[in-house]
């Protein structure tokens, strides 16, 4: 009977491991981004969204290229004063952060966003 109990516990643990959230696989860490500082200015195409694991938006830069903007997690972004619906589509913003390492992937992990003479420092510890 002991062996059956061990097998039952092992099976339950294996099942839990398979269905448990995998935060590292879904997390937008810094490893995929250049260490070099990067800045870009563009026009808001889709406004700030705080619905995912990180706040996001899209901008269109000079030349028409659409960039994905990845910011801090929603709570941290909101603590920096940046809320959904605050920056309208068509507004000009400047982003400071780190460009994605893949040259064909137009994405910036943003530390600071400037709009309307206001700077939202979503990663103040990275200054």
- Tally of contiguous helical segments: 3
Strand composition percent: 25-35%
Mean pLDDT value: 85
- The domain count comes to 1
- The CATH class is identified as Mainly Beta
The biggest beta sheet is recorded as: 5 strands, mixed, barrel
The low-confidence parts are 16-27
* Side-by-side strand order of the widest sheet: 1-2-3-5-4
Provide the CATH topology: OB fold (Dihydrolipoamide Acetyltransferase, E2P)
Specify the structural class.
alpha+beta
Distance between the termini: 60 Å
Strand-helix topology:
Blueprint: H1 2-19, H2 23-26, E1 38-49, E2 56-61, E3 66-70, H3 74-79, E4 92-99, E5 107-115, E6 118-121
Parallel strand pairs: 3-5
Antiparallel strand pairs: 1-2, 1-4, 2-3, 4-5, 5-6
Summarize the structure.
The protein is 22% helix and 35% strand.
Structural write-up:
With 127 residues, this protein is an alpha+beta fold. The chain has one domain: OB fold (Dihydrolipoamide Acetyltransferase, E2P) (Beta Barrel). It contains 3 helices and 6 strands. The chain has helices at 2-19, 23-26, 74-79; strands at 38-49, 56-61, 66-70, 92-99, 107-115, 118-121. Strands 1-2-3-5-4 form a 5-stranded mixed beta barrel. The longest helix is centred in the N-terminal third of the chain and has 18 residues, at 2-19. The N and C termini lie far apart (60 Å). Mean pLDDT is 85; it is low at 16-27.
């Amino acid at each position: 009977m002991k062996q059956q109990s061990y097998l039952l516990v092992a099976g339950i643990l294996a099942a839990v491991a398979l269905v448990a959230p995998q935060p590292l696989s879904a997390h937008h860490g810094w490893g995929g981004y250049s260490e070099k500082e990067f800045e870009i200015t563009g026009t808001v195409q889709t406004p700030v969204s705080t619905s995912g694991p990180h706040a996001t938006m899209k901008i269109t830069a000079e030349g028409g290229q659409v960039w994905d903007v990845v910011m801090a997690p929603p709570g941290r972004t909101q603590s920096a004063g940046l809320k959904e619906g605050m920056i309208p589509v068509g507004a000009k913003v400047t982003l400071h952060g780190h460009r994605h390492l893949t040259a064909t992937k137009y994405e910036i992990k943003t530390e600071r966003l400037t709009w309307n003479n206001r700077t939202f420092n979503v990663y103040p510890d990275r200054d």
